[in-house]
Design a protein that fits this description.
By secondary structure, the protein is an alpha/beta fold. It has 2 domains: 243 residues, Dihydropteroate synthase-like (TIM Barrel); 104 residues, 2-Layer Sandwich (Sulfite Reductase Hemoprotein, domain 1). Helices cover 43% and strands 18% of the residues. It has 12 helices and 15 strands.
Length: 369
């Protein structure tokens, strides 16, 4: 199961968000957003660190007031992951966080105000080499576009985005990325497809307000998966009414499923049936909880019976094929047999050992390069 993704990425200009490249040939980055009160510096810093530990490349922080901007400055000092400031309505907030070390400014052109205010933000970003994300959202389109189209449409989203791309072009500012988000999957996908063919800047993907953990995951996987398979998208956020850590996990699983990035364990597990020789679901739940800290890319197969078990186990770095007793495969070869007693403990031990071997091999390759 080790093969490169067949997806051909859309060509885009590369920008830098802090030390994370976005666009060009850079890996698709995973983002999430804090949901703490930004003025509660300790709580926000703690959440950012949890999001980072889950594997996020970039974290967005809402900055709704000048007091929050000052708090953002303190937060910036205490974390080392690139931070995007989410700015609405008051352009002065954008100017302030720019001075406090923000790595990217997310502005919504539909509510930032008059052109001179946007111009001030652009000039500040240009002076300090800070990228901007033009964040168009179906729920906050400009009033004239709402009147023109009658309701949010893909064409309305794209027109809003291009209007502000043209504005940045007038000021010779190319250091930006764009998103055209909607909660409707069809609308968002159509808008991104249209925009992808009209600009060369990186695209930030998202199905906005996607829903709770289960529903939002499905909607995001359908919409973002369709775009990613077409090579569209340079960075993404899974928008869930859930712990931000879950957004990161879902984002990674999506990219892993398309072979666009690899991190941690890719589990291949059967849904279980009456043929199973051990409790597959219980085993998987335990393994996912225990092995969440492993970052080494590897495939682990957990299959409950001999129908598909040997075939799947042979293709994985480490595999368990249910039987009497159960058979362990390592590196594609039968290795040992395990009974059901202490099955999870023994599997964890074997998986961790295999992960350590793979990590050592990787470090040796890096050292020789």
């Amino acid at each position: 199961m080790h093969f490169q993704s067949p997806i051909k990425r859309r060509h885009s200009r590369q920008i830098m968000v802090g030390d994370v490249p976005v666009g060009g040939d850079a890996p698709i980055s995973v983002q999430s957003m804090t949901n703490t009160e930004t003025t509660d510096v300790a709580a926000t810093v703690a959440q950012i660190k949890r999001i980072q530990e889950a594997g996020a490349d970039i974290v967005r922080v809402s900055v709704p007031s000048l007091d929050a901007a000052e708090a953002f400055g303190e937060i910036r000092k205490q974390v080392d992951i690139p931070l995007v400031a989410d700015i609405h309505f008051d352009y002065r907030i954008a100017l302030r966080v720019a001075d406090l070390g923000v790595d990217c400014l997310r502005i919504n052109p539909g509510n930032i105000g008059r052109e001179k205010r946007i111009q001030a933000v652009v000039e500040k970003a240009k002076d300090l080499n800070i990228p901007i994300r033009i964040g168009v959202n179906a729920g906050s389109l400009e009033k004239d576009l709402q009147k023109k189209y009658g309701e949010p449409t893909p064409e309305a989203l794209v027109e809003s985005a291009l209007r502000h791309v043209e504005f940045l072009d007038r000021y010779d500012f190319q250091n930006f990325k764009v998103s055209v988000k909607a909660s409707d999957v069809f609308m968002a996908v159509a808008a991104y497809r249209q925009l992808a063919s009209q600009i060369e800047q990186p695209l930030h993907l998202g199905i906005t307000e996607a829903g709770g953990l289960r529903g939002g995951t499905v909607k995001s996987a359908v919409g973002l998966g369709a775009l990613l398979m077409e090579g569209i998208g340079d960075t993404l956020r899974i928008s869930l009414a859930a712990d931000p850590v879950e957004e990161v996990k879902v984002g990674w699983e999506l990219l892993k499923s398309l072979k666009l990035r690899s991190k941690g364990i890719n589990f291949i597990a059967c849904p279980s049936c009456s043929r199973q020789n051990f409790d597959v679901i219980k085993t998987m739940n335990e393994l996912e909880l225990r092995l969440d800290d492993i970052t080494t890319p590897m495939d682990v197969a957990v299959i409950g019976c001999v129908v598909n078990g040997p075939g799947e186990a042979r293709e994985a770095d480490i595999g368990l094929a249910g039987g009497q007793p159960n058979l362990i495969y390592i590196g594609g070869q039968p290795d040992s047999k395990l009974g059901n007693d202490d099955l999870v403990d023994n599997l964890e031990r074997l998986i961790r050992a295999r992960a350590a071997e793979k990590e050592a091999d990787l470090q040796n390759l890096i050292a020789k390069a």
